[in-house]
Amino acid sequence: MRFLNIYIRYRLALGIFFLVLAILVNWLTGFWPSFILYLISVISLVGHFMFGPLRLIQEYMEKGDMEGAEKILNSIRFPNLLFKPIRSVYFTLKGNLAMARQDFDTAEKLMKKGMDLGAGSSLIQGTEGASLLQMGMLALQKNNFKQAESYIRQALRKGLPDKENQAAAYLQMSSIMINKREFRAGKDFYRKAKALKPATPQIVDQMKQMEKYISRLPG
After folding, report:
1. With b meaning 16 or more CB within 10 Å and e meaning fewer, what string describes 34-57?
2. Closest by CA position to 86, among listed 111, 55, 132
3. What is the pLDDT of residue 89?
4. What is the dihedral of CA 68, 71, 73, 75, to 10 degrees?
5. Does residue 64 lie within any of the structural domains?
6. Top-confidence residue, 111 or 64
7. Rounded (5°) CA angle 62-142-128
8. Which pLDDT tens digit goes with each residue over 112-130?
């Protein structure tokens, strides 16, 4: 795993190195002795431009190092050359980082682009719901409750990857319903969120605040 990460980090440089070496060997001895060098070079260069270094982002995301993750993304000079499902992930991650910076307009554009590219792709199956949930969150930041509701309902229909995301979706739907003064529906969504017993501190805190408020509502 570590070796693979090192290879991905230096794949472009290795591809160029082996290409130069292959040309030199070809010139000195002939094509066939240099064939394996050409092959390694082509695999490295094609891998760099079509798959990119997105695998490296995981270690930065796990550490919460958004700056490191953004540097990896910014190292991709030609995103349009990426294999389509990989390109979808690229734009989705760029959208997530823009959202973390509270640049909501840019985040929405990037995430929509990622969703459009990833539609129907089996390689990123299961991530569409999470992307729709994030789009709903963005709409809420803009106080566009109608659009937020549409996105979050779609997210729930598509399916979310874990109970934390599901609880977040139900909690946001509870807030939307209460804003629409549909208190019974708001309470139902809150109970669904609570039944999932989420452990994420932010969600737990939101639920505690919601519980104090929701207990005073009619319906």
Report:
1. beebbebbeebbebbbeebbbebb
2. 55
3. 87
4. -140
5. no
6. 111
7. 45
8. 898 888 654 444 445 778 8
How far apart, in Å, do the first and last CA atoms of the chain sit?
55
Residue spans of beta strands (DSSP E) within the chain:
none
**Residue 67 neighbours by CB under 8 Å, 6+ apart:** none
Q: What angle (nearest 5°) sits at the alpha carbon of residue 102, between those of residues 97 and 108?
A: 70
| Interatomic CA distance for residues 135 and 85, integer angstroms | 19
Range of the domain at 13: 1-51
Helix pair 66-74, 84-100: axis angle to 10 deg: 140
Q: Take residue 218 and report the two structure tokens written for it.
A: 């009619």
State if pTM tops 0.90.
no
Please choose, from the candidates 19, 22, 17, the residue with its C-alpha nearest in 3D space to the C-alpha of residue 34: 22
State both tokens at 195.
Answer: 């039944």
Residue carrying the six token digits 């991709």: 76
In a domain? residue 35? yes
Domain count, the chain: 1
Residue 175 lies in a domain: no
In angstroms, the CA 27 to CA 38 distance is 13
d(CA 200, CA 159): 19
Alpha carbon dihedral 1, 71, 132, 170, in 10-degree steps, equals 80
